[in-house]
Amino acid sequence: METFTIEGGKPLSGSLRVHGAKNAALPILAAAVLAEGQFHIYDVPHLKDIEVMLRILTELGATTSHHEGAVSLDTSSISITHVPDDLMGQMRSSIFLMGPLLARLGEVTISRPGGCAIGERRIDLHLSGLSSLGASIHESEGYITFRADRLIGNNIFLTFPSVGATENIMMAAVLAKGTTKILNAAREPEIVDLQNFLNAMGARIRGAGSDTIEIDGVDRLRPVTYRVIPDRIVTGTHLLAAGLTNGHIELTNTMPEHLTALIQLVQSCGVEINTHHDIMEIKAHNRSRAIERIITSPYPGFPTDLQAQMMVFLSKAEGTSVIKETVFEGRFKHVNELARMGASIYVDLGSAFIRGVDHLQGTTVEATDLRAGAALVLAGLAAEGTTYVEQVHHIDRGYERIERQLQQLGANISRLDL
Ligand code: EPZ
């Protein structure tokens, strides 16, 4: 079992280039199914989830390679319409393949993805969205099959601005007959990146980044060369690590405009953050002040993917803060582990009440999911003594060798195979 060992108390310092965004790369790799030919996609991080997506594409008939962030993908021979069950089970983001496979091959079968540590992870909006485009749906023994000779454009209202459902519907609609309008669409930057990728392929999409996205269906798309946007959650994680350790770091290959909510909140705590083009400089001198109330919400609100990391930052701030999690019902699994390190956190009715303490104490803790695991690493950086973080495979799903990233920022962290 791989475990991180962290000697805490050392201010971070140094410079780090942020890698490409997992949550942009995954739908973009799926969208490549929509055209036949050779793609070159750059700044794709080497992560477990990306590895699984490339294995699924290979099983469907594509040829793939991934070297130093560059993915080469030939989708000419894709002919399989059934997403392999075992790989579907390893990564629920495989659901992104429904729209593209249905649009290109006229049929797709997936096993219903389960929930995970952070919540039920429903897919009703994906299913109703594809049905609205004229696909017939058949479900039996846990398998869902969609069929459509040609999808037909339609107006689709999302009862919740689901990121995945917005992306799946976009990818299905690009080859549909007629125009599709997605209302109450998710507005995340990764959706804008997907629009830009698809439009480069010859699609006709407008409005990504707003709550209304319009797609005029076309007959064919072509393969392209593309570079993925930087990962805003990895950027935010390191920003908070610097704030927690009274560090002074520089992050490059960032898009500060994707982190407005986080930057403003952390600046209000007394941390200095300067941005210039893709460069972000973070300087923390003294103990941060608490934040009265944070509510996670769809973009451009405070991102749920930074909630756990922000909670660690506030667990050492001066005063009491409250964080309300509104996106995923099970996303407080890090609280018990933080309490074992001396944090003073009380959870009630979906809100965490955090009373800042002077110090955290290193001990052995367990990662339960991707962002909770990253939060525990941050806690180890700030704690006195040694922290062991177990089950680090969760963290490897979203951070490319996080220990190497942090070593580059001066942290005393190493990966042990115990
Ligand atoms: C994407 O997940 C991200 N994953 C998540 O990042 C992120 O937390 C989430 O968006 C919210 O920003 C990828 O992009 C690969 P949603 P997704 O559909 O698409 C409910 C990480 O840490 N819902 O916006 O699954 C759902 O139950 C991961 O990198 C429905 O009810 O998120 C949840 O409560 C974690 N019906 C809420 O919407 C549906 O059909 C948000 O889900 C779909 C979703």
Instruction: Kindly name the structural category.
Output: alpha+beta
Beginning-to-end CA distance, first to last residue = 5 Å
The CATH class label of the largest domain is Alpha Beta
User: Using only CA atoms, what is the Rg?
Assistant: 21 Å
Low-confidence stretches: none
Strand order of the largest sheet: 21-22-1-23
Q: What's the rounded overall pLDDT mean?
A: 97
Small-molecule components bound: ligand EPZ
As a percent range, the share of helical residues equals 25-40%
Could you say how many structural domains there are in total?
Answer: 2
Q: How many helix segments? A: 14
For the largest beta-sheet, the strand count, sense and barrel status come to:
4 strands, mixed
β content, as a range?
25-35%
CATH fold group of the largest domain: UDP-n-acetylglucosamine1-carboxyvinyl-transferase, Chain
Give structural notes.
The model has no long low-confidence stretch (mean pLDDT 97). The protein is α+β, with helices and mostly antiparallel strands. The strands form 6 sheets. Strands 21-22-1-23 form a 4-stranded mixed sheet, with helices on one face. Helices cover 31% and strands 25% of the residues. Helix 1 (22-31) packs parallel to helix 2. It has 2 domains: 2-18 and 230-417, Enolpyruvate transferase domain (UDP-n-acetylglucosamine1-carboxyvinyl-transferase, Chain), CATH 3.65.10.10; 22-227, Enolpyruvate transferase domain (UDP-n-acetylglucosamine1-carboxyvinyl-transferase, Chain), CATH 3.65.10.10. The protein has 14 helices and 23 strands. The protein has helices at residues 22-31, 48-59, 85-90, 98-105, 124-132, 163-173, 189-200, 232-244, 260-268, 307-315, 334-340, 370-382, 393-396, 402-408, and strands spanning 2-7, 13-17, 38-42, 63-67, 70-74, 107-111, 136-140, 143-147, 155-157, 179-183, 204-206, 212-216, 225-227, 248-252, 272-276, 279-283, 294-295, 320-324, 344-348, 351-355, 364-366, 386-390, 412-417. Ligand EPZ binds next to helix 1, helix 5, helix 6 and helix 12.
